[in-house]
Design a protein that fits this description.
The chain contains 17 helices and 9 strands. It is α/β, with parallel strands linked by helices. Strand 6, helix 13 and strand 7 form a beta-alpha-beta unit.
């Protein structure tokens, strides 16, 4: 767990709430930020997005991406900003074509062979230097008490898009083609994961150097994996990634998000040297309590409940506060905020937990 004394925050500046929670403190209220807090539910975001020719260009325009990152901070005053980017920038850095189809989402071209990608992996941070420029702009604009989060997709999750992209099966829900590859062509998949560990570590290192005070690893496709695949595709790559990031000299806290891992989240907390574990919507409160005995947690309000609002939303917020508020915890959603969430529902949650 991160030691507050080791955090390189100037003594004259306040330590952000999220940094204190990640160091194991239980606070008077949990720090709060929302996954996808910069996005289409905000009218100011929609206006800004309309100025960019396409989504990838938007992500790689530092001024526009910084503005998108700061918009929810101005409106809601979250305790942390997360840089506006996308997990599929890494395949692009490795030489795979990436584009977004309107109304359909991401599309990827033919995946280069692992050996060719391995040649590009050490320079992944340089290839994506625009994200670092975004982080620097945001850090300069943020108040010192608010933290800045950088992120990357986890190796398996990024690999699923890279492998499924060849067959245009993205969006099928279970990443069937990639999981089939994991069984049928384990060597190719394992080599791809090794490349992604190195590329992702370099990318995260660049983000920390650019001003990110926290780094998050998004494993969006840990769901539905049997024990043996979970160990091979999630646990081992995460262990290798965290170790490589630390070997590169990165000292900022790391949050791991094995979305959909259910009870395996406890095993993840025990075996992966992240500083905190983000929990998804379906994680039982009791499992969250057990994980919290190992290290700080983050999560896990249902984005659909945030959309619905009303008394049930209030009740669930109170449940989470009662269950997890007695230990180190970062309040968040269990997955990203939805495009049609009413703004006043976000404000309602923030007021309920005392953040507004």
């Amino acid at each position: 767990m991160t030691d507050l004394d080791a955090i390189q925050t100037p003594t004259a500046q306040p330590v952000p709430r999220i940094i204190r929670a990640l160091a194991g403190e239980t606070l008077d209220r949990p720090p709060v930020w929302f996954m996808r807090q910069a996005g289409r539910y905000l009218p100011e975001y929609r206006r800004l997005r309309a100025e960019a020719p396409d989504f990838v260009a938007f992500c790689l325009n530092p001024e526009m991406a910084a503005e998108a990152t700061l918009q929810p901070m101005r409106r809601f005053g979250f305790d942390a900003a997360i840089v506006f980017a996308d997990i599929l920038l890494i395949p692009r850095a490795l030489g795979q074509d990436v584009w977004f189809e309107a109304g359909e989402g991401p599309r990827l071209g033919e995946m280069p062979i692992p050996g060719r990608m391995a040649e590009r992996a050490p320079a992944a941070g340089e290839h994506l230097a625009a994200v670092g420029q975004t982080l620097s702009l945001v850090r300069a604009a943020l108040e010192p008490e608010r933290a800045l989060i950088g992120f990357a997709g986890a190796p398996w999750t990024v690999a699923t898009y890279m492998l499924d992209g060849e067959h245009r099966t993205i969006g099928k829900g279970e990443r069937a083609q990639a999981r089939t590859y994991a069984y049928a062509d384990p060597r190719r998949v394992d080599e791809t994961l090794e490349v992604l560990v190195e590329a992702t570590a370099r990318y995260l290192k660049m983000q920390a150097d650019a001003g990110a005070q926290v780094l998050k690893i998004f494993e969006s496709w840990a769901e539905g994996l049997p024990d043996d695949l979970f160990e091979r595709l999630v646990l081992k790559p995460h262990q290798a990634l965290v170790q490589r990031v630390r070997d590169l000299g990165v000292t900022v806290p790391l949050i791991g998000f094995p979305r959909g891992s259910a009870a395996l989240a406890e095993r993840y907390a025990e075996q992966v040297a992240v500083d905190a574990v983000a929990l998804d919507t379906a994680c039982p409160l009791e499992v969250g309590r057990r994980v919290q005995q190992i290290k700080p947690i983050q999560g896990a309000l249902d984005p659909l409940l945030l959309r619905a609002g009303g008394e049930l939303l209030d009740h669930r917020v109170d449940q989470l506060m009662d269950a997890w508020g007695q230990g180190p915890w970062i309040f968040n959603l269990g997955h990203g905020i939805l495009p049609d969430v009413p703004i006043d529902h976000v404000e309602r949650v923030l007021k309920r937990i005392g953040a507004q």
